[in-house]
Amino acid sequence: MIAGEVNELTIENGAPAKDDIVSIFTRRTATPRRVALIGGFAPRKCGIATFTTDIFEQLTRYHPNIGLDVWAVDDPAAPLSYERTRGTIRADRPEDYIGAAEAMNAEGVDAVWLQHEYGIFSGESGEMILELVDRVAAPLIVTLHTVLMHPSDRQRSILDRLVGRASRVMVMSRQARDTLIEHYGASPERVAVIAHGAPDRPFGREEEFKARMGLAGRRVLMTFGLLGPGKGLETMIAALPAIVAEHSDVVYRIVGATHPNLVAVEGEAYRERLQALADELGVADHVMWDNRFLETPDLLDQLEACDIYVTPYPNLQQSTSGTLSYAVALGKAVVATPYVHAVELHDDGVGVLVEPQSPPALASAINELLSDPALLAATRERAYAVGRTTIWPRFADAGAALIESVVARATSGTRLLDIAPGFDAVLAMSDSTGIYQHAIGVVPDRRHGYCIDDNARALMLTNVAARAHPEHAKRLAVTYASFVQHAWNPDRRAFRNFMAFDRTWCEDVGSEDSNGRTLWALGETAIKAPDSDIREWARGCFDDVLTSFDRIDSPRAVAFAMLGCCARLKGEPDHAGALALLERGGMLLCHLLASGRRPDWAWFEAVLAYDNPRLPQALLEAGMYLERAEWITAGIETLDWIAQRQVSATGNFRPVGSEGFGQAYDQLPFDQQPLEPWAAIDASAAAHAATGDRRWLAHARLAYAWFFGANDRGTVLADLASGRCRDGLMPHGANRNCGAESILAFHLAHYALAALERSGKESPREIDVRGDRFGPGTRSVAENLAHP
C-alpha cells in the first residue's frame, strides 16, 4: 500500500471530535497558518459579508496563530472601501479573480477558504468565481451557503466544479450534507457540517432589554434581516389579527433595512406595501419598524428583548439562517416554516414548525406558546442549551480544525536515495505483450490495452534498472523491445501507438510525440542496454527509422528525437543522420523561441503542456555535443524560466497542471502529473553538466521530493517498497490509480537523480521526509534535499 496519506478530520455536530481537539490544540496550537478568506466583508451589508466578518473576528480572537488574509468581494453596483483586508475582488472583473489567485499562490497561503453563494459573484449563476478556483494551488475549503435540490444546469455545473476542486466542503446543516452526497456525488469524508456560529450571552434577560427599549409589559415577536419578498413578512402580518385578538399586548418588531438590490429597483415600495397591509388589517399599532442594518451588538440587544423569534420563509430550501442561529443561542422560542435550518433545530425541540404561507397556522402556533408560559419557558431553555454547542468559541475551534485538516504537510517516513524502487509494480503492469497503459487503483485495466509511449519508457527503464533488478530487467527488455519492433509500420514509415488488449492495432500511425519518444528510447537503448544483443538491435532499429523524422516538427517530438540522437552519438560520434537531425532540431527550437518570446514569457510556444523541461534539455544536450554556445545559453535561460514557474512560494515543486495545457500565456496548478518532475530532474542534470552550477542539483532534489509529499497537498504519491506511483496530484489529493506512465516516471526519476548525485561527486544519502513545513526546529523535505 502507499504509505503516508494525510488522515481526514472528523467534525461532529458542528465541532471537532474530542480526539481531534486534543490532537490539534495540544500539539499544533503554536503552528502558524496563513489562510486566504474570500467572501463579502464588512461594511458590505449582506448575510455572506456578516458571516465572513464573523469568521475573521472569531478565529482571530480564539486562534491567533491563524492569520487570515481577507479578499473582499465587492458589489460593482455599490462599491465600498474596506479595512482589515488583503485585497478586493470586484465581482464583475475576471482579471480581479485571476489576480487574487496569482497573489495567493505567490504568497504561499496554507489554505483558501471560499464563502460561496451564487448571487455574490458575476457571470451566469456567479460563474466568474471559477476563474479563481481553477487557479489556486493551496487546499481549497468551500462553505456552501446554498445547496439547491433543483439547480439550473449552470448552477449544477458550477457546484460540481467547486465540490470537485475542494479539499473540504463545509455546510451548516445535515440536510445540505446529505444533498451534496446523494445528488451531487460528493465524497462523504470531504463534507463537514459546522453549525452557524452564535454569540455567548446570559440567559433570560428579556425584561431588562424590553425596559431599555420602551417595551416593558409587551409580548414581543421579532423578525430580523434585509427586507424582501423572500422573508414571508406578508404572512406574519396577515396572522397578527388572530394573535392580537387573544393577546392584545403583542407587538411584532420588523428589524432591518430593505435589501439594497430591492431598493435599487423600486425604492421602499415593498416596505410601504407591508405597512399598507398592516393598516388594512387594523394591526398597524402592533407592528414596529426599525429600518436599519444593525451591527451585531445592536442586533443582539434587539434579540434579547424578544419572546418569540419568527422566520416565516416561503423558500424551504433555505439551508441556514444566521439570525436564527443567534436567536437560538440567546434562548428564544422559534416559530418557523419548515426550511432546512429550522427543521433541524425543531428536531432538537427549540420551536414550532408551521405550514408555509399560512397565516392561521402561524397564529395558532404563536398563540399556543403565548398562552402556556410553562411551554414557552421550556422551549426557550431547550433553545439555549442547543445554542451552547454553536457559540463562537466552539465555532472557532471547528473552523480551525477544518483548516488544519487540509493544510499540506510532509508525511512521516524516511526514504533512501540509494535504495532502488521495488519492481513489483512494473511486473504487475506487464505481460508477454508489453506494459499496460492504465490501472484502476493498483489493478491493471486491460480495457485500454497498451501504447508505445509507455513501452518506450519501460524499455528505457530496463537500461538503468538492470543492476538493481537484473533478472527482471533483462527479461522485460526483450518484451518491450518486441513491442516497439512490432509497432513499426513500414508502409507508413512511422510507429503505431495504441494496441488493444487482443493485440490488434487501433491505428496505422501514432502521434508525432509518440514517434519522437520511441526514437529517444532507441537511442538510449543503443548505448545503455546491458545486453549487447539488445544494443545492436536498438542501433539497427534507430538507423532504419531515423529518416522518417525529417518531416516531424512538433516541438516535443523534435526534442525527444534530439535526445535520442544525443544518446546515439555517444556510441557513434560521426553518425550523419543523428547529426543532421540534431542540427535541424536545434535550429527549429531556437526559431520557435525567438518567435514565441515576450518580455514575461521566455518560452518556445504561447502555451505550456507536459514534459516542458524536455525542450530546454534538448537544446542543452545538443548545444554541448555540437559546441553551440548560443543553444546552451538558450537552454539555460528557458530551463531557468520554467523551473521558476514550477516552484511554489513555499519552496515545493509544483508541476504545470494538465488543466492548463493549451491555455495561452497561462498555467493552472492541477492536475499535477509525474512526468514533469522526472523531466525536471533530467533537464537539471543537463544544466548541471553544462554549467557545473549546483543549484540544478538542488532543483532536481526538489522535483524528486514531490513524489514523497513535498507538494501542494503534503500527499505521498510513490512507494519505494512496491515501486508504485499514483497517477497525479488533484485538487483534493492523490489520484488513486497507478498507471504505467506514473510508475515509470517515478522509477526513471529515481535513477536520473541517483546518476546526477554521482556526477556531482556526492554519495547517495538519506532523504528525510518528515515534519511540518513550519514546525519549529524542523526543515521541510524540500529544504533537506536542497541543503544536505
UniProtKB/TrEMBL annotation:
InterPro entries: 6-hairpin_glycosidase_sf, Glyco_trans_1, Glyco_trans_4-like_N. Residues 762-773 have a biased composition (Basic and acidic residues). CDD domains: GT4_mannosyltransferase-like. Residues 762-788 are annotated as: Disordered. Residues 135-197 form the Glycosyltransferase subfamily 4-like N-terminal domain. Pfam families: Glyco_transf_4 (PF13439), Glycos_transf_1 (PF00534). Residues 216-384 form the Glycosyl transferase family domain. Signal peptide: none annotated. PANTHER family: BLL5144 PROTEIN (PTHR12526:SF572), GLYCOSYLTRANSFERASE (PTHR12526). This is Glycosyltransferase family 4 protein. The lineage of its organism: Bacteria, Pseudomonadati, Pseudomonadota, Alphaproteobacteria, Sphingomonadales.
